[in-house]
Amino acid sequence: MAVNATPESSPPWVLDFADGDRSMADLLGGKGANLAEMTRLGLPVPHGFIVTTAACREYLRHGSEPPGLTALVDAHLARLERDSGRRLGDPADPLLVSVRSGGRFSMPGMMETVLDVGVTDDTVPGLARRGGDRFAWDCYRRLVQMYGRTVLGVDGALFEHELAAARATLQVSHDGELDALTLRALVASFRRILQREVGEDLPQDPREQLRRAVLAVFSSWNVPRARFYRRQEGIPDDLGTAVNVVEMVYGNTGPRSGSGVCFTRDPASGELGAYGDYLPNAQGEDVVNGSRATIPLAQLAQLDPAAYTALTGHLRTLEEHYRDLCDVEFTIEDGTLWVLQTRVGKRTAAAAFRIACALVDEGLIDLDEALRRVDGHQLSRLLHPQLGDTSGHDLLATGLPASPGAGVGEVALDHETAARWAREGRDVVLVRQETSPDDLPGIVAARAVVTARGGLTSHAAVVARGMGRPCVVGAADLTIDLETRTVTTLAGTTLAEGDTVSVDGTSGRVHLGRVPVQPSAVATRLAGGATDNGTDPVSDGVLRLLAHADARRRVGVRANAETLPDALAARQYGAEGIGLFRTEHTLLGERRELVERLVLDRERDDALRQIGELARADLVQVLEVMDGLPVVVRLLDPPLHEFLPDLTALAVEVAVNDATGVEDDEAQARLAAVRRWHESNPMLGLRGVRLLAVLPELVDVQARAVAEAALDLRARGLDPRPEVMVPLVAESAELVLVRARVEAVLAAVAAERRTTLRVPVGVMVELPRAALTSGRLAAVADFFSFGTNDLTQTTWGMSRDDAETGFLRTYREQGLLASDPFSTLDVDGVGRLVSLAVREGRRTRPDLGLGACGEHGGDPDSVRFFVAAGLDYVSCSPPRVPVARLEAGRAEVLEPAAGGAWADTR
Amino acid sequence: MAVNATPESSPPWVLDFADGDRSMADLLGGKGANLAEMTRLGLPVPHGFIVTTAACREYLRHGSEPPGLTALVDAHLARLERDSGRRLGDPADPLLVSVRSGGRFSMPGMMETVLDVGVTDDTVPGLARRGGDRFAWDCYRRLVQMYGRTVLGVDGALFEHELAAARATLQVSHDGELDALTLRALVASFRRILQREVGEDLPQDPREQLRRAVLAVFSSWNVPRARFYRRQEGIPDDLGTAVNVVEMVYGNTGPRSGSGVCFTRDPASGELGAYGDYLPNAQGEDVVNGSRATIPLAQLAQLDPAAYTALTGHLRTLEEHYRDLCDVEFTIEDGTLWVLQTRVGKRTAAAAFRIACALVDEGLIDLDEALRRVDGHQLSRLLHPQLGDTSGHDLLATGLPASPGAGVGEVALDHETAARWAREGRDVVLVRQETSPDDLPGIVAARAVVTARGGLTSHAAVVARGMGRPCVVGAADLTIDLETRTVTTLAGTTLAEGDTVSVDGTSGRVHLGRVPVQPSAVATRLAGGATDNGTDPVSDGVLRLLAHADARRRVGVRANAETLPDALAARQYGAEGIGLFRTEHTLLGERRELVERLVLDRERDDALRQIGELARADLVQVLEVMDGLPVVVRLLDPPLHEFLPDLTALAVEVAVNDATGVEDDEAQARLAAVRRWHESNPMLGLRGVRLLAVLPELVDVQARAVAEAALDLRARGLDPRPEVMVPLVAESAELVLVRARVEAVLAAVAAERRTTLRVPVGVMVELPRAALTSGRLAAVADFFSFGTNDLTQTTWGMSRDDAETGFLRTYREQGLLASDPFSTLDVDGVGRLVSLAVREGRRTRPDLGLGACGEHGGDPDSVRFFVAAGLDYVSCSPPRVPVARLEAGRAEVLEPAAGGAWADTR
């Protein structure tokens, strides 16, 4: 059978490195595609081939090995043997191969790997000739251990227990110190474990080892932690993984060997220059799992100048070829450099902006491409606050600054505790010796992560960085005792689990207690303040790319604000108006009693007069700040009961009064009134336009406040541009009613002042029925603003508050929701209504104004949807305005596929 | 300018009777079209012409007389003068005309009329020659009065006050007894009122009278009571009214004159034979307003045999021509019969079924046409209960049985009181001297209506019949005193307002106190019971037309039921299965504590076991009754809190215990648990599939109950057909989860019994998101059932309970809602989602089962929508099953326009 032929015509099930390239990541996985690309670039990549994702999907579909796959693998193996000059199972000089997972999207540590495939009783002597007895038996030990755990499903702790016993016997601290005899005994002992646990031994046929290792990697696609990770990262479950079968090279064959992981630039700061960790006489796993202390890459220049020069040359080649930050794994075997893996490297948000701009300056990419390389999530992370003044808070430890930002919380020592406490609403800092993929739920739950061991490329560091969790790794001063549930520092301080610490992921410092938190430099700079030293390449990058986004975007960005400080912040952050001024702000706090008086009919006219004056004062402030820009004033929206006393509390008060003989007619009367207005589902009750219909004086008083505020400012020479928005409209007649009242008041106020006043009146589209009848609504509305919070609530029939405490956790745990529809707009349901309303509203009124003012207005993915849907602007809380600006710009330079698909099929 | 030409090419603004026919009702109004039709039939209709609805719409659009209209009216007037042989304003023999409203749909008494147009100072003498001085001055008096009120907007009470003073002076009891001199003085007095009130006199140019009367009738289209009536009846606001300008003929010119109103059959019972009221020497208004006692039509045969013979001949002509019950107004002037108006007559529900079948038997129509002539609202009315045994309840009065059915409530003496009490939830009987169009809100609000004066064609009778309100008119024994707010009977009983009476609209009797109520004969007959005398033409008609509907309909009718009595009733009423078996029924009453134990973790397993056993017992009963028919079992749906104690009550109990030193740890613990599960909006919270995800044992126990119940019955040789429905699904993953659990349990139970069991699993589509993602849902659901109650709730963001107490009343009063979306399906919003889900669900799965199980399943209009939308079945409460059957059949024989429009544009 010819190489590359598959039982079905396409796609191929097996492909050599030399026959692929990086455009084939869907089929080859990211790792395989990049190995193929490097092979084509002439980099020293070990020989190998890829069993493709197509073969994996076939396997997962049928649950058994696809017929013909073994023959294909054998054919490619023959070529590998020819190229490498070694044969699998050759007693004289055996070929050993690694069998590694590698899907379309990186899932660090989530799936399985089997190394050293090809060691058998027969090949040990030949292997010993390559690297010594100890090396040969260590390879055998590793193979039995990994094969046992991964292929046969034996509990890994059984092996670890034997290893620990051996270390104790020899009084050594790590496995690298175990001698050949001990390793040989461990191989025998591990093989007995296999026999005992599953009644099988390691196959002595190397091809059988290979065959079963490949299938085991396929199967690991569906282990729970991998599924959990995919849900977290939004990776589809049906992609499958490729398997890379690669000639083993060894960094642990002596002092002229070693392994390392490096980046073409600093992935934390974005600074230029090769950057990484190196571990002499070690395999790559030893670097990644953080079990031994690495040395900085720069020291390799002294240890092995030739290898260092070759490596830095390769790094330059890769960065120029990929036109981006790359990360690279390499091994040096007896002075020969092998590049084992590369990919476009993960980076911190700060590095993303700095690198993107640096690549523009270096002429490798243009500004559009730079804009594609950053995103709103990253910007949002940069806008997160940082630890403030730490004086008075003992420095507990300093580790590596693995993921920037600040996190404060109670120490939790395992991921179950961290997740449980987080569910209880507590802020948690996960503190671990080192992390494994099993710790993922704890990292998700924590405000920050600290590990005592590991480097910047350790599991904890990579995962935390990807999620924007502040993270400090390698804080070696910390000793964690899971028996007593304490953490002890070198200085002798002992923390109990539950004590509070503050983590600075930017500096790598961990402090005792609750350190106050400060805004980020980027946020300060965006707000127009100077940075500490005046030169901050990250803030520079953010401002530059924001400016480019502003130049590109067609969609406006407004802010949701109703106070003077928020309005000022909104302008500083670049808001082009207010998309949502909530009039209920006027009636918060002690002022609630004004509404109560209105409802209970107590000095009603005076209450109305006061409401009007307060509203007018609030409006004047915000309209003045937003001089010349639109300010959308939403008429009173919340359920009436939010302004009334709590029924249960009041009922208890009255009952206790009764029981204890206290007379309180006032409380009795209030209770009666609250009962009369009580609703079993206030979200679906008397609120928004309904409350305005029942208490139309509230329309009048608010409309008058708008008119008077605007005319006051106009008299002072300003250009106020208020708009009035009617909430919770389900039927156009509601809008007609309120609009008529608003316009009558506006006309009356204008007439009083012998002038005219034109104020657009629009509708907040936040009920499915409004969207479904948008063609009619548009006939009587000047604009629509999508209130996607409430629209999500009714489209899903789900109250956010109740859902969070009630069942959303269960849903997340069971993977029932791909994402939280309250955070990221549900395109299929809510988004469909938005698109429909845009289309049908514009059909009725081509000049209809269209905006979004729910919290989704500041969510990066949702912003891109709103752009694709054709809105004129989005509106969000002031600190998210830069995020919305960036994403609105990115929407214009990203491939139109996503937006186009939304726009076409909805 | 030529007659019939209008400034715009079409439609015409003015048309002669001779040039129209009854197909032109949109343009000519119903009254005008029928006058034209009768003119073509050769019936003795007075000469006249019609100013069309097109002219009215033009007038309403611009708010002023359309240019050119006066010239057109003049041209047609010239022809009228030629045909009638009299001229307007001719001092010798003046033509007088009536100017009457007449829209597309009958709105009895809602709009204005001006009679006797053409009387001036100059024409009084000529008029006196026709009918005497008294007649002439009475015409003048009427014209000034109507013109003043209608055209000039003068308060009618001012004229009534003068009339009352004149009657008092002359010591006579009604206006017909006023002499010529007095009437002449009244004309002068009325004209002074005009001058005083509006500074205008009655124009002495008859053409100016005519011109302004026409415009005043146009304007009356928009008086509040007309708008209110249109909202009640669902008549569009933009149709406008036509105006009939007709030569006056007089029934009050002496003993050989008179006026009457009659029907071709009895509109109450449907019995064959001319039937009506006649009033000698009177105008038509005197008959209709009930101010004088009429005589039965049959007595006309003695008074004026020739006129009677002519009239009955005309009635036969009309019924054969219209192939339906007609009502007719006529006047006899000095022995000459004039037919003034006809239309297809309103009738009781009972008469509708009887007449439709009689016309089939007479060969005038076929069964399809008969089915078109009845509707579900009428059938529903016939299924309403009737007054039961009245012994022990004094008979207060007997009047005319104007609208059948029974109503019990507190006496209210004006419409404001009736409406106010009804809003407070009280049952009200409106008792009035006579009713006017202003009383409409009171009639709407009342359980029954009683008037002391008036005939079967009086306002109260017509309106109440149209609405299905039981009504007794002409109960002359009652004296109503609005001063003391009492009603006194001839026998001397005095009732205070607020006392309870029972009204039998079928027999015309009013009883003191609360009479028990019995089911209707039709309902009894439908349920398979015999009627009292064995021959009941109404029940016969209902059964016959239901049978025809069953033969015609393609859509199945199921019932919502979960108890044995309901299931039995459902089968008797013809249900073809159960569309909604609510499992929560099992957990009502004392059994609620089972759920509480589940939640509070108290003897949990035992609680689950009991829930399962109870559910199984309920299911066995219903599946047995429905042997061979589908039974859709909905898994537990209500919010969890409905099974837990009330938070406020429990909080009060605990607080009072605390305050009084009582120890109750049990209550404390329950309060803590209830607080933990408390939700601010339970409708949007932990319910339906969400509760099932959180407490999956509830899925298992219910699935097991279904499986065991079905297999128990199968073991007894029956053919149980349960289906399982999952409520409140928003996302297909929810259904996948529950479906897997259900199917695992079904398979396990089947395996235990060494058999197999196939149970379809479907989804209740009751959230907008389910409808919007129905294409995906259908991939994992065997059927959809639309839960339109909840779908309405979320689409509108409106809880029915909260809305009813909170704002729906305001909405109705202000006309914000054309109809209650919880009663009649909101086609534009909710219906659009239903149509979308049908289309996209079937696209995914062509054999997808489709049903509706909300309360709309028994609403006539909604049933026709569901048929048009393409559902397989509707399901409703058992008593509404016949209504759904009838409407499902009618949907097939009605013009496809309505359904087709829905299906196409959604």
TrEMBL record, chains A, B:
Recorded GO MF terms: ATP binding; kinase activity; metal ion binding; pyruvate, phosphate dikinase activity
Similarity field: Belongs to the PEP-utilizing enzyme family.
Stored PANTHER family: PHOSPHOENOLPYRUVATE DIKINASE-RELATED, PYRUVATE, PHOSPHATE DIKINASE 1, CHLOROPLASTIC
Catalyzed reactions per annotation: pyruvate + phosphate + ATP = phosphoenolpyruvate + AMP + diphosphate + H(+)
Enzyme nomenclature, EC number: 2.7.9.1
Record: residues binding Mg(2+): E766, D790
InterPro entries in the record: ATP_grasp_subdomain_1, PEP-util_enz_mobile_dom, PEP_util_AS, PEP_util_C, Phosphohistidine_dom_sf, PPDK_AMP/ATP-bd, Pyruvate_phosphate_dikinase, Pyrv/PenolPyrv_kinase-like_dom
Binding residues for substrate: R582, R634, E766, G787, T788, N789, D790
Domain (PEP-utilising enzyme mobile) ranges: 427-508
Enzyme kind, highest EC tier: transferase
Protein name: Pyruvate, phosphate dikinase
One Pfam assignment: PPDK_N
Domain of life: Bacteria
Annotated PEP-utilising enzyme C-terminal domain residues: 546-890
Catalytic machinery residues: H459, C853
PROSITE patterns: PEP_ENZYMES_PHOS_SITE (PS00370)
Cofactor: Mg(2+)
Keywords associated with the record: ATP-binding, Kinase, Magnesium, Metal-binding, Nucleotide-binding, Pyruvate, Transferase
Stretches assigned to the Pyruvate phosphate dikinase AMP/ATP-binding domain: 73-292, 302-351
